[in-house]
Amino acid sequence: MPVSGWVALIYLIVFATALGQEAWLYGVQGVGPARAGIFINLIPVSALLLSALILGEQIGAREVAAIFLVLAGVWLVNRQSEQLAAQRASLEEAAPDD
Amino acid sequence: MKKSAFSHPAASAALVTAALVWGGSVVGRKWALGSFSAVETSVLRGTGALAILIPLWWWQEGGAVRFTARDVAVFAALGVGVLGNHLLVLFGLRYIGAGAAGIIIGASPAITAFLSSLLIRDIPFRGVWMGCAVSFAGVALVTGIGGETAVGTKPWLGGILVVLASVWALYTIGSRRVMERFSPLTVNWTTLVTRFSCKSPCCGQTKRLPLQDSLRCRFPAG
After folding, report:
1. Cα B155 from chain centroid?
2. How far apart are CA B172 and CA A29, in angstroms?
3. Confidence of residue A26 (pLDDT cuts 50, 70, 90)
4. How far does A94 lie from chain B, in Å, by closest CA?
5. Residues of B in contact with A38 (CB under 8 A)
6. Which residues of B touch A77 (CB under 8 A)?
7. The whole model's pTM is what?
8. How many angstroms separate the Cα of A58 from the Cα of each of A19, A51, A61, B144, B148?
9. Per residue, what are the HEC states of chain A?
10. Is the Cβ of A61 closer than 8 Å to some Cβ of chain B?
11. Are A70 and A42 in contact (CB under 8 A)?
12. A13 touching B (Cβ < 8 Å)
């Protein structure tokens, strides 16, 4: 049995399953499902980058453009929702107490 | 709704970490399948992760947590939701092009945002729509829109994949609701038990999927 197979299996157990799911749930708890959902789009980006780095697969201009758009989308969601959260907080502060 | 003690930057960092390690799992699965069968990989992965998570949970909070029958049913439903996501992807890919499947599944964040704003009202949809739209454009590009796999032989089955995305959205929303009473660690191992106890008999199908299809469909739970 090659060592690489065991290393891959340990990665799948520790990182992809235990840590990944735990990190996802922490994130969902912290920012909510709506904001968390957009981060799913980072998975093909990281898969592409890691495939290139580890497996030596080629990344073309189309893939680079796609990576840019996905990252821009994640950034936009974060920015918009932070602005909305700040607006909501300032409205709550301005509202008179019952 | 109970507010989380977890800060937004830390939560965002956790989500990026999850996406990175799940992206790496595509490479990891390819390597692991060179040494183990799909069934062996799935079973070892599930039992290995549970061997880490359950002792950790017991050490941290085992004595303090009490489950009712309803809680167990909710955790089982969440686990079945993730499992359903995996199985519907596999089923859908038999009838529809991987590119088209990837694009449809790319709607998952929008479905999550829509259902989340509808069901638990955690954020107004106007806060996420633009980012979703741009991100979907990236997903469409990376999954090969307009290519040879864009349509598939039975496009109506795309509807099944939309349901699939909704299942994942419901898992995300449901887990948030459950985490008002339980920790992420508790939700993690309990849903994992359901997923892997049901998944092993079905996972022989995964060996037939090429890496490209796995990448395009982005199984959310890695």
Report:
1. 23
2. 10
3. very high
4. 20
5. 109, 113, 128, 131-132, 135
6. 127-128, 130-132, 135
7. 0.74
8. 28, 8, 10, 15, 19
9. CCHHHHHHHHHHHHHHHHHHHHHHHHHHHHHCHHHHHHHHHHHHHHHHHHHHHHHCCCCCHHHHHHHHHHHHHHHHHHHHHHHHHHHHHHHHHHCCCC
10. no
11. yes
12. yes
Closest CA to B209 of B100, B103, B93, B105: B93
* Nearest Cα residue to B174 out of B197, B191, B193, B192: B191
Q: Which of A5, A15, A17 sits opposite B34 (nearest CB)?
A: A5
Query: What are the angstrom distances between the C-alpha of B209 and each of A22, A42, B18, B30, B204?
Result: 27, 21, 23, 10, 10
Q: Are B130 and A83 in contact (CB under 8 A)?
A: no
Q: A85 and B4 in contact (C-beta within 8 Å)?
A: no
Report the alpha-carbon distance of residue A82 to residue A61 in Å, rounded: 32
Q: Minimal Cα distance from B114: which residue of A?
A: A34
B57-113 pLDDT tens trace: 999 887 788 888 988 898 888 888 777 776 776 666 666 665 556 656 666 776 777
A-B contacts (CB, under 8 Å)? 310
Task: Tell me the DSSP string of B159-213.
Answer: HHHHHHHHHHHHHHHHHHHHTTTS-HHHHHHHHHHHHHHHHGGGGGGGGGS-HHH
- Asked if B161 and B92 count as a contact pair (C-beta separation under 8 A), the reply is yes
Instruction: For residue A18, give how far its alpha carbon lies from the nearest alpha carbon of chain B (Å).
Output: 5
- Contact list in A for residue B179 (CB cut-off 8 A) is 25, 28-29
Task: Out of A30, A69, A81, name the one closest to residue B123 (CB).
Answer: A81
3-state secondary structure of B149: coil
ipTM for the complex shown: 0.81
